[in-house]
Amino acid sequence: MKIKSLQYFLQIAEIGSLTQAATVLYIAQPALSRQMQQLEDELGVTLFNRSERGVTLTDAGRLLKTKATSLLRDFDSLSQDMRDAFNEPSGTVTVAMPPSLFHLVTMPAVREYHRTYPKVSLRMFEAMSAVMNAWSMVQAGNADLAVVTNIEPLASLENEPFVTEALCLVGPPEAKLAMKTPVELSFLSSLPLVLTSRPNSLRLMIEAAAAKARLPLDIVMETNSSRGLLGSVEAGLGYTALPYSGCYQALLRKQISAAPIAGMQVAWTLIRARTQSLSTAAERMRELLIGTARSQIESGLWLTGQQ
Q1: What contacts 190, CB < 8 A, 6 or more positions away?
Q2: What are the backbone dihedrals phi and psi of residue 271, each rounded to the nearest 5 degrees, phi first?
Q3: 126, 284, 285, 292: which could join 109 in a potential S-S bond, CB 3.0 to 4.6 Å?
Q4: Distance CA 130, CA 61 (A)
């Protein structure tokens, strides 16, 4: 079985047409058809249901698609690892990060990584769970690494604790909230709140805690933007809840005030695929993310962080 035959098979499976796949692959359709027939003969199964409208996968075809995708990913990783073992890391690394960690972790890590490994093409996504599921990106093979909250689905992924920090109530400066003075969850019940929409993990965390304590929540606005949450507070529309990492810059600039919510913490988790080992370049990024978080905590910038 040839690697190229599997690559051709996956292209046909993706497009659903031998004719269009042949055009994309720059190969004559009869030649592509012969390769697929040879692949079916070699495996002893029918991979495609063929019709005038194109092709669809049989049960055997769907199984091969799953296996071949994983196999080719491992093959690419092996090739990259062999090059990296004797050369400077190269290739592409894709990471999905929560917006809250942008200033404390994401940008410092990206800056250092680019300086240290200039041959690596780095793809960085900001993923809020209500908009882009970082865990599903890793599960589908569209990201090498991601940082998510530990209440998101993790069973099918390799995961390791990253950072645990307090969830904070964020209000205008005149509210005089203080990081040294935690507030009770019941205090939130008396405030107009601007929160992310479901199924954002922080929104679900707050609602679950409020429901357990039988406390009502007055949600006056929803936005799936960290900038929108802080901007709404600064505009006097209400209060919000964010990890300290998500509001620390605005706090330093005295644009807001903030206080930890007693008993509520955000546990960040670093995830990667269970079925595929990290490339050398991706492993270097993993180490750098962990090192950056630890450094920010030890420096005192991350006031509520715990490693």
Answers
A1: none
A2: -120, 155
A3: 292
A4: 33
